[in-house]
Each structure stands twice: as C-alpha cells, then as structure tokens.
C-alpha cells in the first residue's frame, strides 16, 4: 500500500514539474515576442497583437511583456494591461497588473524617482515613480483619469503571503514626455529574465 502511495506522489510531483517548465517556457516565448514586437516601426505592427509592448525597470532589472488583458493566462506570460485604461503615451492613466510571485516580485524594492520604460512599436515612453501605497482590492478609483498622464502598477500584497493576498501594492508614476523616444533596433537585446529576489 505504501509503495502505491509513494508512486502516486512521484507521479504528482513529476506532473507539477512538467507544468512549471511549460509555464516558464511559455513566459520566455512571450518575452522574446515582446522584444521583437516593440523593435518594429509602428507602421509594421499587427492590428491585434498578442503583446502590446514591454515594461522595463532598469533599477530592478525587471523586464516583461505587456499583454492586452490581465486574465490568469495573460499574467502567467507577462504583465497585463487593465482594460479601459489608457495605452502607453496616451491621455489618462495606464494601468498594468502583474503577479507578486513572478514578474512584479521585484517591485518590493522600487523607490521614488526610479525610471520605468514602456516600449511599444511607436517608441519608448519614460515614466518616473512618484510614490507607492498599500490599499484594499476595492480601490478601483486609483485607475481614474487624472490631470496628467500617469502609470499605475498593481500587484498583490504582502509579497511573501501564502494564498490569496488581502491587499494590493500600488506604484504611482508620471509620464515625462508625450513624445516617445524613437524605436531602437537593439531593443530585442534587452534583458528578458525576471530577477528572483
């Protein structure tokens, strides 16, 4: 009887490892796709892309694909754009969400004045962090259109909480210029791995 239970546990562990490898490889494929997508001129972009850009925070060595939604499948592959919020460089607030135990884990070390880059086919938009705060999940008012173009990053909090976290960690940043830097051909060489810190 114990041998059968041991085999069952080994089979479950093997399935879990295979699944984690699949998720990791899928996320890496989306990071590569994002790097290739944003290095193209706007005129060559697809009308309904599987990625809309890439977020980079050099201070944290964070780089991730931005996907057009923030459902569970999207958040396994990258960072999700929150529907009904502005797109990078647009008027209003850009809302991006990510998991605290994958792509947005490094946010626990973010500091005021850190640079955040949003790379899209039209160029690179630069944001600067103003502040962070911890709120309850019902604070959807944070995504309301403000007087200036802003970026809101959202992840669950506490970072080391096991299970469904009770709060949200919010990063507030403002756009430096409505005109993006031009598309650079070497964007595809940007780091595409997430720090495990």
Write structural notes for this entry.
By secondary structure, the protein is α+β, with helices and mostly antiparallel strands. The chain has one domain: Sortase, Chain: A. It is 22% helix and 28% strand. The chain is built from two helices and eight strands. Strands 1-2-3-4-7-8-6-5 form an eight-stranded mixed beta barrel. The protein is globular. It starts with a helix and ends in a 22-residue tail after the last strand.
Give the helix tally: 2
Uncertain spans, ≥5 residues at pLDDT below 50?
Answer: 41-48, 185-197
Q: Write the H/E string, N to C.
A: HEEHEEEEEE
CATH fold naming: Sortase, Chain: A
Q: How many structural domains in the coordinates?
A: 1
Top CATH class: Mainly Beta
CATH superfamily: Sortase
- Structural class from helices and strands? alpha+beta
In round numbers, the mean pLDDT is 80
**Largest pleated sheet:** 8 strands, mixed, barrel
Helical fraction equals 10-25%
Shape: globular
Number of strands: 8
Radius of gyration from CA coordinates: 18 Å
